[in-house]
Amino acid sequence: xxxLTYLRRELRHRIRQATVIAVxxxxxxxxxxxxxxxxxxxxxxQGTVLHALYGIGTDVTVTKTPGKPSSTAHxxxxxxxxxxxQAVDQLAGGNLGLIDESFVARVARLHGVAAxxxxxxxxxxxxxxxxxxxxxxxxxQPPSSALNPVTFSVDGIDTAHASLSPYASGTISSGRGFRSxxxxxRVAVVDSGYAAAHKLKAGSTVTVAGTxxxxxxxxxxxxxxxxxxxxxxxxxxxxxxxxxxxSSLNGQVNTIYVAAASSADIPAVQEExxxxxxxxxxxxSSSLASAVTGSLASAASLADDLGRWLAVAVLIAAVxxxxxxxxxxxxxxxxxxxxxxxxxxxxxRIVGQVLGESLVMGIAGAALGVGLGLGGAAVVSAIxxxxxxxxxxxxxxxxxxNVTFNGGGRTSSTPAGYYHTVDVHLTAxxxxxxxxxxxxxxxxxxxxxxxxxxxxAARLHPxxxxxxxx
Amino acid sequence: xxxxxxVTKTYSKRGGTVFAMRDxxxxxxxxxxxxxxxxxxxxxxxxxxxxGAMHRPNRGVVSLGGQNLARMPEARLASVRAATxxxxxxxxxxxxxxxxxxxxxxxxxxxxxxxxxxxxRALAALDSVGLADRAHHLPTELSGGQQQRVGIARALVKxxxxxxxxxxxxxxxxxxxxxxxxxxxxxxRERGLTVVLVTHDSAVARRAQRIATMKDGYLSVALTPEDRx
Lengths: 470, 229
Fold this sequence. Notes:
The complex is a heterodimer of chains A (470) and B (229). With 470 residues, chain A is of the alpha+beta class. Chain A has 12 helices and 18 strands. In chain A, strand 16 and strand 17 form a beta hairpin. With 229 residues, chain B is α/β, with parallel strands linked by helices. Chain B has helices spanning 44-51, 74-83, 100-106, 115-128, 144-156, 174-191, 202-205, 225-228; strands spanning 2-13, 16-28, 33-38, 59-64, 67-68, 85-88, 162-166, 194-198, 210-215, 218-223. In chain B, strand 4 and strand 5 (67-68) form a beta hairpin. Chain A binds chain B through residues 1-2, 5-6, 9-10, 12-13, 335-336, 338-347, 349, 461-463, 466-467, and chain B through 45, 49, 52, 54-55, 74-75, 78-83, 87, 89, 93, 95-98, 102, 105-107, 109-110, 115, 118, 154, 158.
């Protein structure tokens, strides 16, 4: 076929220029692949963190900021020294506001909701010894031995819908997980880290708020999770635990996990829940992503802002250079095209010839660019920088504040454990979509360059072209 | 074959208007050999380009076989050039990246022939100018005379009715010039071509049946001394 013969001969004749154009496009494409892959890696890392914290399959979470304490509330953790020292074991979760459990069923009935479940998360079991009055120091200060409470975190799980909670992100490494029939049982699943530290295994007993639970399984949480140390059935948790400011947990949850029927339903579901529970914080996976802080968020911002614009700028520069070189090449071939027109070639055939040459350079650039991109992404994955992510228990809502008054005045601070900081290994996965995007961009770049060049060739009048002195 | 009536062609140059041809009337019969002479800038190349359907006049009629080239759209002009007219250029205008055979094949591309047929016709055309053994040589591997022979083969491979040659021997030495002119004369006789040839060289012009002279855009036509004698 003459078209291919001519194309091959021209590209071979201008191999240096063709290489410059292809390499220029390849650098742009390679950068797009690496940046897009890194961006995907950041999104995956965010997804890992959020799934670990809020459960795989959860599309929407509903939480509340704790209200103001009532005048009669005495609060969890407020212990009054007595005549004798007292051993205390108390389960309390003061960082999230409580939601009446009846709302779980009402949310589950909303249009577009596939499933909903309630849970009690972010609770801390505290064991300490309250000193006797006689042990208090000057000014009523407790002895230092009383300031070392033993704590561990506890989540209350609706065993009938355990697949819709952070607990579901883990894998049972020994024993078994919760079953629906465990709802009223005194059984627990323990995180593998906590189990190893406390020599617990399936069949052991763990004590929560003074109540013994039989360990039925050990769970390992996915990377990036902020796992609870101990998971117990929600019903048991509601009996033995305390809410904010010492309130009862009877019939209460502090988080509702919602799965939408489809991803398209998520915004509508979010609006419906917000209307049902106006004082609640309704978070979707996208809004949760924006609540992630730390170096993971910085990496996401870097990938989205600087990286993407850098890639776009390099790509534009590459296409501009390719266009200029193609136009210059057409300029040097004016007499050639004039001769072809004198031989009876139509403009569109000459345009097709120039476009064909540019297309080949674009495809070469795409192949080289994908190779560069894969290499770059592999380097990013090999270096595997560790980024940290920090997420509050109630993303989107204001963090609760512990307020204390002392001689220096009023001091407020976010309660310990409210924020989870986890480390995630950043990778740069190159998807088929990214490769297709790269090929399309390179070919489009080549065609843009070819179009500009061939537009000039098409406009040439044969007599004018032939009279051009080279 | 050709009939030009009241043809005027102007160019805009540095804000002014240059008359390349002024009210030119000319008839060229089928199978005729016409030479066009004139000084540089006299309008002879413009006349050749109008005959070759590469330009349109500002005024007048350029009729080829009864069709007015002055009114034809560019696509149809391209078809006329592809089917009816063969060009031979002073600087050969071979495509440097293509072999001699491929350069000749380029003239058949608009005909959309099958590869084998196109290649066979190109090889036959090269054979007719004595260059079959150089078919796979690049232009840079050929002498000036050989390149012009390739140019002639390219012009004639499509069996045109008209051969237009713009200073075809302008870049050749005297011996090669005579070889090329003898070849053109042979092909003209064998094929019954209509030849219009622009030249500065009176020795070349004398081979034509008629000589037209362009001066300041005006055309005058005379019979050759041989024809008159």
